[in-house]
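Record type: monomer structure entry
Structure origin: computed from sequence
Chain ID: A
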Amino acid sequence: YIVSGMAFFDEEGKAVSFVEDSKGSVEDVTCLEYFDKDAIRLLQRLREEQGPVSEIPDLPVAVMGVYFESFADDLKFVKKYLYEWKEKIEKYSGLRDISLASIEPKDINRFKIIRHSVPEMINRRISEIKKLVPEVHKVGTDMAVPDGYLRPMLSYYREKLDTTGIEYVVFGHIGNNHLHVNMIPKDREELKLAEELYVRFAKKAVDFGGSISGEHGIGKLKKRYLGIQFTENEIEEMRTIKNFFDPDNILNPGDLFE
């Protein structure tokens, strides 16, 4: 049985505390995903567009949400897990009246729609801007940090971004300390600034003992950042291994190395 739901909070610090505590005390947690107030705002926009058939719940402004999920291999544990999630929401002053939880497949599917709608709405927003400024694109982070550094990393994101005026949305795998900061520049100047911030964010994540890429890999676009996390000798060792298995450079040429 999958026990899942969404907990809503009126302060980001409360949401982070809810996550940190849940990771250490709720049994069989399989997923914790974060949606900041700007992500929720995008969901509200989608709900308004879709009308009465929308799967998006009607949420107040300026709230943030955490999708949670745990797995129970026996029905007798379902009630226990639901109670544990309820306790955690109340402990951190979650908005209990609008928070959701269920084991019903239709509700679980609804939560998945909510999760997947945020990146889709961000891409839509970028498409709207590109009609006016074609060279503009989203600048999205993929950094992850160790336990204990989620809060300072998130604070660093906010500190640097809130003074720039760049539109941005934070969402993603908060249970793994792996949030995606999606910067949405509206012109060339903001694009340049967003790319500069990306480098600063990557350096800070590495300073905290984290990674410049938590899941999406390096590929062609991010190979210029490889040196932030690895020394020249380490990169050369990677290149040596690649050359050993692929002496003719036919496997993903241009990825990671020139």
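Annotation 1: The first strand starts at residue 2 and ends at 9.
Annotation 2: The radius of gyration is 20 Å.
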